[in-house]
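Our preliminary data section would be incomplete without showing what the modeling component actually yields. Below, a chain of 94 amino acids is followed by its predicted structure, encoded as tokens that our downstream tools consume directly.
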Amino acid sequence: MQHLLERIGRFTLHIFEEVGVISVLFGQTIKQMPRIRRDLTINQMAHLGVDSFPIVALTMFFAGMVMTPANRGYSHAIRSAVDVGRHYVRRHGA
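Predicted structure:
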């Protein structure tokens, strides 16, 4: 019984030690970060998100074309490519 309690205690101390190390690292990281300028942050978010939609859409379309099964007729290939690409983006993110 004592051996079991010692193992539980060691495990608990190990967990608290790891949480402490991560907390100290997080605190040091926050302290080293520069002050955030909201206007620049919003512009960068727009540039990386909304402004990259065309390339994401094109990539989604070609990924769907590649993943479309070869046994479908050509008339369904474009629609299937878009459907497969859309499903991939929804499942895995852009």
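The mean pLDDT is 80. The first helix runs from residue 2 to 32. Preliminary results of this kind motivate Aim 1 of the renewal.
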